[in-house]
């Protein structure tokens, strides 16, 4: 009986609170998005892509509203709010030629992002979203000198690790027990296991890591999560930046970033990023070169419609991929860190990667927005890869190189609508959309030749004599690649379409939010020359989020995934689509006026039919049955004191096989999964002096550790077969004065022999062997930057 009056009191208290909301525009009637609005110097929010902002649960009184944003004049207003009043207050801002910034006093931008990019579809503030989404922005990447997606961005997000790699060709990030899908500007950019080409950070504004299924992305993604790379767009502010970097092993890099307008009426804007990068290696004969050119144009057709056209070109050349792998029957680290099985004169890998995006945004009215986006990806690769023909019991190796030519195209399209409406006391955030895609990948692995002769001519990695026992013969490319790929079964084709509808219902002045959604997916997939397999499925999504107070929320989530998988089983059969579901609970809090954010989450994922590698070759896979992944994750990011930033995270992951298909041998229920380190922890500290003669100087330190690793292989019975634990320390200095910046970082301070990945093969070669990839020894990077 006490529950009824208590509920009445609660409902009465909700009814007495007010709200302030509106739309922010510039003086030329353009939408001002991603702009910070401050209320009474204590509450902060950001305008979404439609320029909308809002504060709720406000008591009657006088409120001071202020806005600050780069390139716009600071604006301050006073609002008198009456009891339970819902005040509409639109803002009109003028352009500021002095480019005021909210963070100019401290000289550092905030690490905390409070809303997602428009490419993530949902416009719910992160604190209210019933899912863990972590964002790494461009400022943090610059401080840590993350030049490439493969450079260590994962240290900023709990539970993310890099399983293994073929040089810097692709990233291969794992999280929550699986390889996570790569998205670019909200579109799935994966055409094969080895794609996409790792992104150069010169064109990247932020990377958004979505943990768990992301049905709202419409494009299919793994139940473990996705990462979404958001590229730089024009801002309309005339500015630029140039950087020059150098580092260990003859590494050099230059970047140019230009941003501005091409018309006096500011309707035609541009952004241009150019980067050149070359680096050697601690291993002999190894190098990596890259050129990036990325122009972007945006045009404001009218005050409600904007079109954006962007093109990115990456040209990469790297040593024959696989050169980083080392093999020994003795054990991990049995050979010197700089050991390579490569040799001078082998054919490198050359890649030309291009993509073009066309986006049309239309504000239908103040509450509804329509977005249509199309993209075309083109990838061409020519070169070779290395993998031993055999490893002998004494450790000698018969090396082998093979052709790896590939071409890939992807044509992708999306259209979605975001809107807000009110039905009685219930607020609705609506998201609906359609998604289409066609992906084609062709590869030729049909030619190879050994580098070493038998019976005494084998390569001895303990006393390496580099060279070839046979004359090098170029691969025969007289036949067109697609014909060669068809003859060898090296074709992967995926066609899909999906529809998504979501309603986020807000109760009690949006303090309690219920998300109901469903996605319909239809796909056709053919792998390695097999017949297409067609699949259709409806997957639901249910989320619940409750705001305990203005800065704290708790959430629960149930979601499902349904995605195609590339590959073929070792039996020759085609693989089935992966299905999975997730249950998750979490707690989020914003501290110190959104300068610090914390997220704690616990989850369970069940996955069916996931393909697991059964060897190093692309056609050697098995479907074990069912896998279960459970874990706890903690993410902390932001400013804990003036000038003192911290990124800290921890993940505990328990991943095991729960069901084994009848035809599968060598696996059992309860066996731990590969690709899921039990413990991963990261800490990164940055202290920036605020005053005095040394103002602008910053000190940085970081630590990364992976314990009880299960990267590409794990054995319960033979712990010596598993990779050793990983512990790395980094440190650095920075200096910021006016428009000039210097950044100096040292990685692997202790000069430890660290392994990026590895595996144990008990039946692949003549003798059981350990395979591993060594990370860089102690190394440094020095960057000079100038903004104008």
Automatic annotation (TrEMBL):
Cross-referenced InterPro entries: Beta-barrel_TonB, Beta-barrel_TonB_sf, Carb-bd-like_fold, Plug_dom, Plug_dom_sf, TonB-dep_rcpt-like, TonB_rcpt_CS, TonB_sidphr_rcpt
UniProt-listed SUPFAM superfamilies: Porins, Starch-binding domain-like
GO BP, sorted A to Z: siderophore transport
Transmembrane segments: none
GO molecular function (one): carbohydrate binding
Domain (TonB-dependent receptor-like beta-barrel) ranges: 310-749
Domain TonB-dependent receptor plug residue range list: 126-226
Subcellular location: Cell outer membrane
Cellular component aspect of the GO annotation: cell outer membrane
Organism superkingdom: Bacteria
Pfam families (alphabetical): CarbopepD_reg_2, Plug, TonB_dep_Rec_b-barrel
Gene3D superfamilies: Carboxypeptidase-like, regulatory domain, TonB-dependent receptor, beta-barrel domain, TonB-dependent receptor, plug domain
Swiss-Prot/TrEMBL keywords: Cell outer membrane, Ion transport, Iron, Iron transport, Membrane, Receptor, Signal, TonB box, Transmembrane, Transmembrane beta strand, Transport
PROSITE patterns on file: TONB_DEPENDENT_REC_2 (PS01156), TONB_DEPENDENT_REC_3 (PS52016)
Chief place where the protein resides: membrane
Membrane topology: Multi-pass membrane protein
Family statement: Belongs to the TonB-dependent receptor family.
Protein's name in the database: Iron complex outermembrane receptor protein
Organism: Sphingobacterium paludis
């Amino acid at each position: 009986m006490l529950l009824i009056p208590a509920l009445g009191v609660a409902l009465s208290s909700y009814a007495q609170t007010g709200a302030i909301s509106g739309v922010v525009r510039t003086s030329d009637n353009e939408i001002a998005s991603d702009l910070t609005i401050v209320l009474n110097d204590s509450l902060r929010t950001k305008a979404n892509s439609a320029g909308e902002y809002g504060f709720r649960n406000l008591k009657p009184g006088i409120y001071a509203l202020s806005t600050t944003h780069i390139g716009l004049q600071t604006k301050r207003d006073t609002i008198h709010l009456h009891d339970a009043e819902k005040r509409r207050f639109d803002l009109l801002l003028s352009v500021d030629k002095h480019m005021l910034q909210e963070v100019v006093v401290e000289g550092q931008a905030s690490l905390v992002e409070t809303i997602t990019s428009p490419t993530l579809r949902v416009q719910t503030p992160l604190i209210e979203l019933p899912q863990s989404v972590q964002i790494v922005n461009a400022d943090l990447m610059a401080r840590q000198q993350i030049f490439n997606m493969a450079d260590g961005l994962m240290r900023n997000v709990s539970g993310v690790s890099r399983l293994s790699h073929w040089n810097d060709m692709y990233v291969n990030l794992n999280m929550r027990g699986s390889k996570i899908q790569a998205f670019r500007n909200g579109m799935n950019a994966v055409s094969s296991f080895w794609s996409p080409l790792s992104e150069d950070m010169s064109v990247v504004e932020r990377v958004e890591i979505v943990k768990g299924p992301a049905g709202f992305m419409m494009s299919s993604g793994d139940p473990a999560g996705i990462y979404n790379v958001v590229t730089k767009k024009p801002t309309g502010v005339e500015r630029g930046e140039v950087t020059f970097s150098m580092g260990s092993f003859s590494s050099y890099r230059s970047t140019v970033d230009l941003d501005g307008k091409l018309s006096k009426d500011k309707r035609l804007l541009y952004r241009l990023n150019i980067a050149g990068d070359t680096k050697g290696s601690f291993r002999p004969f190894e190098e990596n070169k890259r050129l990036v050119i990325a122009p972007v144009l945006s045009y404001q057709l009218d005050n409600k419609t904007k079109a954006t056209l962007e093109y990115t070109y990456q040209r990469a050349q790297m040593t024959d991929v696989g050169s980083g792998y080392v093999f020994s029957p003795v054990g991990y680290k049995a050979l010197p860190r700089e050991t390579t099985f490569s040799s001078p004169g082998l054919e490198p890998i050359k890649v030309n990667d291009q993509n073009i995006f066309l986006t049309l945004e239309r504000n239908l009215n103040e509450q509804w927005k329509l977005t249509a986006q199309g993209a075309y990806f083109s990838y061409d690769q020519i070169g070779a890869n290395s993998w031993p023909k055999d490893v002998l019991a004494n450790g000698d190796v018969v090396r082998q190189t093979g052709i790896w030519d590939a071409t890939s195209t992807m044509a992708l399209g999306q259209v979605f609508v975001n809107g807000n409406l009110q039905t009685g006391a219930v607020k609705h955030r609506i998201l609906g959309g359609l998604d289409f895609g066609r992906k084609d990948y062709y590869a030729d692995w049909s030619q190879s030749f050994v580098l070493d002769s038998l019976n005494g001519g084998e390569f001895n990695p303990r006393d390496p004599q580099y060279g070839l026992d046979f004359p090098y013969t170029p691969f025969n490319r007289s036949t067109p690649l697609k014909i060669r790929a068809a003859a060898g079964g090296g074709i992967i084709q995926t066609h899909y379409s999906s529809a998504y509808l979501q309603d986020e219902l807000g109760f009690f002045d949006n303090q309690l939010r219920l998300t109901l959604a469903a996605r319909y997916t239809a796909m056709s997939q053919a792998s390695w020359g097999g017949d297409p397999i067609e699949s259709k499925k409806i997957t639901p999504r249910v989320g619940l989020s409750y705001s305990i107070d203005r800065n704290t929320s708790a959430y629960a989530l149930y979601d499902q995934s349904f995605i195609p998988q590339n590959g073929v089983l070792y039996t020759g059969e085609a693989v089935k689509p992966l299905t999975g579901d997730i249950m998750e609970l979490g707690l989020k809090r914003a501290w110190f006026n959104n300068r610090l954010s914390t997220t704690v989450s616990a989850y369970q994922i069940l996955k069916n039919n996931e393909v697991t590698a059964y060897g190093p070759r692309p056609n050697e896979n098995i479907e074990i049955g069912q896998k279960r992944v459970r874990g706890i994750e903690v993410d902390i990011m932001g400013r804990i004191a003036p000038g003192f930033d911290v990124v800290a995270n921890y993940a505990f992951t328990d991943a095991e096989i729960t069901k084994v298909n009848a035809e599968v041998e060598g696996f059992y229920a309860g066996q731990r999964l590969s690709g899921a380190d039990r413990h991963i922890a990261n800490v990164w500290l940055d202290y920036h002096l605020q005053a005095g003669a040394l103002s602008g100087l910053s000190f940085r330190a970081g630590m990364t550790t992976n314990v009880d690793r299960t990267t590409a292989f794990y054995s319960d019975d033979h712990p010596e077969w598993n990779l050793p634990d990983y512990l790395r320390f980094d440190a650095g200095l920075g200096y910021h004065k006016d428009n000039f910046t210097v950044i100096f970082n040292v990685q692997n301070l202790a000069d430890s022999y660290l392994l990026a990945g590895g595996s144990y093969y008990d039946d692949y070669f003549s003798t059981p062997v350990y395979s591993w990839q060594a990370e860089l020894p102690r190394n440094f990077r020095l960057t000079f930057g100038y903004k104008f």
